[in-house]
Amino acid sequence: ILNVEQSPQSLHVQEGDSTNFTCSFPSSIFYALHWYRWETAKSPEALFVMTLNGDEKKKGRISATLNTKEGYSYLYIKGSQPEDSATYLCAPLLIFGQGTTLQVKP
Amino acid sequence: EADIYQTPRYLVIGTGKKITLECSQTMGHDKMYWYQQDPGMELHLIHYSYGVNSTEKGDLSSESTVSRIRTEHFPLTLESARPSHTSQYLCASSEAGGSYEQYFGPGTRLTVT
After folding, report:
1. Which of A32, A42, A97 lies at the smallest CB-CB distance from B100?
2. Across chain A, what does the average pLDDT equal?
3. Backbone angles phi, psi at A94, to 5 degrees
4. pLDDT tens digits for range B26-71
5. Does A49 touch chain B if contact means CB atoms closer than 8 Å?
6. B27 touching A (Cβ < 8 Å)
7. Is the CB of residue A42 less than 8 Å away from at least one CB of chain B?
8. B105, exposed or middle or buried, with CB in 10 Å at 0-12, 13-18, 19+?
């Protein structure tokens, strides 16, 4: 089983803080990189799909970058809000990382 | 909002029982998937299907079986449930081709006593 690593595993921040997470994957398996957001008691929802080296995607206060040559992607949240509290999963193809669980305190 | 449904949402059942977890989607997606997630662990792909009458095992070995007789329906069956099958099971679907962006169901939380 190919390894997808996400760090940190969990993160507690104050409202208004900016934060970022990392997803590392073997660059040899790259096809597309997905970021999903999974809120408690809900289904995972797609945030971004990234396919090209150097891709940058943005949705509101959340953005992501991709480096396929070195096998990593960063997810950034600017000015975290309590509603951003969720587990953020990355998945190159159909292999998921363990996720980063973000708690934003008001 | 994604139109993918799973039933039951929660199931507590005794060892040795046969169970079927239902998954249906109304988006006409050709590709469907089953994932298993133990507490605190990753989602692991256990089965997938790229169309009617096509099923494959995922990267995590599972004693469950699946069928794909209709595009919209992808049930998962355990012939004889065991406590080691206690887990959360998530169903997902995606369009044919493209980037494999998946739409997930709400999950079934299975407990085998």
Report:
1. A32
2. 93
3. -110, 20
4. 999 999 999 999 988 889 999 999 999 999 999 888 899 999 999 9
5. yes
6. no
7. yes
8. buried
Structure tokens at B92: 């997902």
CB contact (8 A) between residue A95 and residue B59: yes
Residue of B nearest to A6 (CA): B42
Retrieve residue A29's tokens: 């398996």
DSSP string, chain A: ----EEE-SEEEEETT--EEEEEE--GGG-S-EEEEEE-TTS--EEEEEE-STT-EEEETTEEEEEETTTTEEEEEESS--GGG-EEEEEEETT-----EEEEEE-
Q: What is the pLDDT of residues A71-87, one digit of tens each?
A: 999 999 999 999 999 99
DSSP line for B67-96: --SBTTB--EEESS--GGG-EEEEEEEE-S
CA distance B68 to chain A (A): 19
Q: Which residues contact A18 (CB under 8 A, 6 or more apart)?
A: A76, A77, A78, A79, A80
Most A CBs within 10 Å, among B100, B103, B108, to test the A interface? B100
Task: Please indicate whether, in this complex, the C-beta atoms of A1 and B59 are within 8 angstroms of each other.
Answer: yes
